[in-house]
Automatic annotation (TrEMBL):
Its EC number is 4.6.1.16. GO terms for molecular function: nucleic acid binding; tRNA-intron lyase activity. It comes from Roridomyces roridus. Residues 103-123 are annotated as: Disordered. This is tRNA-intron lyase. One of its GO terms (biological process) is tRNA-type intron splice site recognition and cleavage. Keywords: Lyase, tRNA processing.
């Protein structure tokens, strides 16, 4: 969607990481914590090079997600609404059991909770009046609230279970077919082809790659899963083995790599032979 590739299914994310050395970047936040920057969740966004690699190796396909969401019928919406209400009631029952097993609160804590609930109810009533009738009906007022929120909802991690989701006509198994459909456009020039070629070459050597912009490169190169290893290299992609660098750039790469406890890796891509040459820079011999 919008020239970016997302992975929503948690099992797919685990498979990509454990079997294919592809980690992506998590971007999902909770609705009430939209500015959070730690412990992000689904969806996972893939780097363009990761997408090209996965599709070319027939590990993944590209789906035009907006086109896969068809207009749902009234019956489908009613069935979906009924399922969501059933899930809500199930969660309420589970939370009520958990509340009974938890220690009793003090009178002051109970008072504060009731005040918060009253404010939420008032705000919800105003929102409902402004938006019209909702598909969801909150639990009866007599139901004991087990936690700060009176009821919660499970948000599915993927839209594929929806009855109105149909991707049969918008799946692309090759990069060229996705480009012809206007869904994808990477790689479109020599620099992007060089990035894809270097990514593949490093992957074939067993490396894990992540974004390297914070360390002055195109990639961070890990010898194993980034959850277990620090990056050994920050890598910069050069369009050809004869690409020119100024002395100042070489000094900058060397000093930055030393400060961040990494070697800086210069990766030269030969677009004719499809081969990569590597040169590492690190500061040494001081003191």
């Amino acid at each position: 969607a919008n020239k970016k590739a997302f992975v929503w299914d948690v099992d797919d994310i685990a498979t990509l990481r454990s079997k294919h050395h592809v980690c992506g970047i998590f971007t999902g936040t909770l609705p009430h914590l939209s500015q959070q920057n730690l412990f992000l969740g689904v969806p996972m966004v893939l780097m363009p090079e990761e997408v090209v690699f996965l599709v070319e190796n027939e590990i993944a396909v590209l789906v035009d997600d907006p086109k896969a969401h068809l207009q749902p019928s009234i019956a489908e919406l009613q069935r979906w609404s009924a399922q969501e209400k059933e899930l809500t009631q199930l969660q309420l029952a589970q939370l009520a059991v958990a509340a009974k097993d938890s220690p009793e609160m003090s009178e002051e804590a109970v008072k504060k909770r009731k005040e918060r609930e009253a404010k939420r109810k008032a705000a919800a009533a105003q929102a409902a009046a402004a938006a019209g009738e909702s598909l969801f009906t909150p639990p009866a007022d007599g139901a004991p609230p087990p936690q700060d929120s009176q009821y919660s909802m499970i948000i599915p991690a993927s839209s594929t279970p929806f009855e109105w989701y149909n991707d049969s006509t918008c799946v692309y198994t090759t990069i060229s077919s996705a480009k012809q459909a206007g869904l994808w456009e990477y790689p479109s020039n020599l620099q992007e082809r060089a990035k894809c070629g270097v990514f593949r070459d490093l992957w074939e050597q067993g490396m894990f790659m992540g974004g390297g912009i914070r360390f002055g490169g195109d990639y961070l190169v890990y010898p194993g899963d980034p959850l277990r290893y620090h990056a050994h290299f920050s890598a910069s992609i050069l369009e050809s083995p004869a690409f020119s660098l100024t002395p100042m750039e070489i000094v900058a790469h060397g000093r930055l790599g030393t400060v961040t406890k990494k070697s800086h890796l210069l990766c030269g891509w030969d677009d004719e032979t499809k081969a990569v040459t590597y040169l590492s820079i690190e500061w040494a011999g001081f003191g």
